[in-house]
Amino acid sequence: MKIELLTTFLEVSQTLHVRVAAENLYLTQAAISSRIKQLEEELGVLLFDRTQKRLKLTAEGHRLVKHANEMIIMWQKLKQDVGIAESSSSQLFVGSMMSIWDIVLQDWLQKIHRNLDDVHLYTQTYSPLELRKQVISRMVDIAFLFEPPFIEDIISEKVATVPLQLVSTEKDLALHQVNNMVMVDYGESVNSQIMRAHRESNAIRHNMSQPRIALNFILEASGCAYLPRQMSFEHIRKGKLHPVVGAPEYGRDIYAIYLAKSHKTTLIQDALMLFPYVRN
User: Fold this and answer.
1) Domains of the chain
2) What is the pLDDT of residues 246-277, one digit of tens each?
3) pTM, whole model, 2 decimals?
4) By CB neighbour count within 10 A (0-12 exposed, 13-18 middle, 19+ buried), where does 114 fall?
């Protein structure tokens, strides 16, 4: 099976439109359709339901998405290991929970780009459980989570403690006046503290998985949320958000994990030294 067939399949699975996929991949629509048909023939299943105006993934198509992503990553790692990739470059496969990308990793990637010019970055987003599996199977070199796993072969290193502050679109709001609060998922240890603090006030109205979604939501619809200080700083400076008077602050630890016997240990440690936040 050719890798370009899987790449084409993934693009169509994301856009669900042959024309858009063709434009994104700089191919003709006929080439896109031909590749999808060839892949379906090789697998002996239909990957897309074509009975409606808009394409829809079949059950088999949904199952292939995960495997296709893993096979492409493995192919990229294989090229490096057998020397097909340029000998002057190194590949670093980074995985993380979605919310951690928003909180701290964007700046870190920029620092790697500026300071380690021989490193080729590959990034993926997974659930915490899947991240652990990806590191153990060597599909991901380094992963970032809120809760580190206690696994013998994995090194866990705290890379940041992110301050979380309660901010509101309403100025001079006191803690006892809080309502229309968006509860953001920062992991069990922090979530439980916030829930206990607001259990009796019934202030929590919505639950959202990512701080970026919560930020955009309250800026548009008004309300309040616990957000990373560095994410809300600019909005506070411009007067769009305001710290809630008397609200406690929390800290969310972020951990990097990687295999103890990884052949990229030196590269991983060099990359972590560029982390933009104080580690302790």
Assistant:
1) 3-81 (1.10.10.10), 90-159+254-272 (3.40.190.10), 161-252 (3.40.190.10)
2) 899 998 899 999 999 888 999 999 999 988 65
3) 0.65
4) exposed
